[in-house]
Design a protein that fits this description.
single chain, alpha/beta, Rossmann fold, two-stranded antiparallel ribbon, methyltransferase
């Protein structure tokens, strides 16, 4: 099941990228290399890779959805200089095989770790990463889990149209597994550090609707002929919360950076 079917163009236009402070943190944590290699897993339309491109020479961006791969190519290729090398891979993260001899210095999992077979992915990753390489797992709160009054009002509208349970495309969002830090500490990447990067955003009502259509829980096709009614209901719910024409969101990226301990062959 592709939980994000039909969302790729909305994801590209309406999902926020990562803040500059997060990109700088990940670049600082990554060992030097020439060329310096980035593997962006679950790249979507390439937003993470785009933010990190100034720090890396050789980028592979991987996604299981071919339409996301096409969006990533359209975003990344024009933005990279002639000195960059870019490859877009259509593959499951758990099945991805890098080119022979290619070892990433940084592997990024932005907003995607929940969707992976985590232990399988980590075991596979341990087979090909460079010595001393860094795995970064990070995400911000989605609109479904955010706690501000206007975000809760929007979630209530989604539930009115699609039901109380959180959707994942045509299915239901799976239960949370163990905490990510626990999963990482049980893997080869058991040297884990945590950080939080705050971010403040301003949204218009149209941007909120576009964001919703980028998610698995409010993908456009789920509303069928009721899309116009849904959009009108969202606008009605949000109008009382507008501040100078915008909705203010305070969010934060939770960031886990993980390495192998030095005793394991660094």
């Amino acid at each position: 099941m592709n939980a994000f079917a039909g969302t790729s163009s909305y994801y590209r236009r309406f999902r926020p990228g990562i803040p500059a402070d997060l990109a700088a943190l990940l670049a600082h944590e990554t060992p030097a290399g020439s060329p310096r290699r980035l593997l962006d897993v679950g790249t979507g339309p390439g937003l993470v890779a785009l933010a990190l491109a100034p720090y890396f020479d050789d980028v592979i961006a991987v996604d299981s959805d071919p339409t996301m791969c096409a969006e990533a190519d359209a975003v990344l290729r024009p933005a990279l200089s002639a000195g960059h090398r870019l490859q877009i891979g259509h593959a499951l993260a758990e099945d991805f095989e890098p080119p022979a001899g290619w070892q990433p210095h940084l592997v990024t999992c932005g907003r995607v770790f929940h969707w992976l077979d985590q232990r399988h992915f980590l075991n596979r990753l341990a087979e090909y990463v460079a010595p001393g390489s860094v795995l970064a797992v990070f995400s911000d709160r989605s609109l479904w889990t955010a706690a501000s009054a206007w975000q809760q009002a929007v979630r209530a509208v989604v539930q009115e149209f699609l039901g109380e349970q959180r959707r994942a495309g045509d299915g239901i969002f799976g239960p949370d597994g163990p905490p990510y830090e626990e999963v990482l500490r049980a893997s080869a990447f058991c040297d884990v550090t945590t950080a939080a990067i705050p971010v403040r955003r301003e949204w218009s009502i149209d941007e909120v609707i576009g964001y919703l259509y980028s998610t698995s829980f409010a993908a456009p096709h789920l509303f069928g002929h009721r899309r116009e009614a849904f959009e009108a209901a969202v606008a009605d719910a949000l109008t009382p919360f507008l501040d100078s024409g915008f909705l203010v969101e305070d969010n934060a990226f939770t960031v886990l950076t993980a390495r192998r301990p030095s005793s394991r062959g660094r």
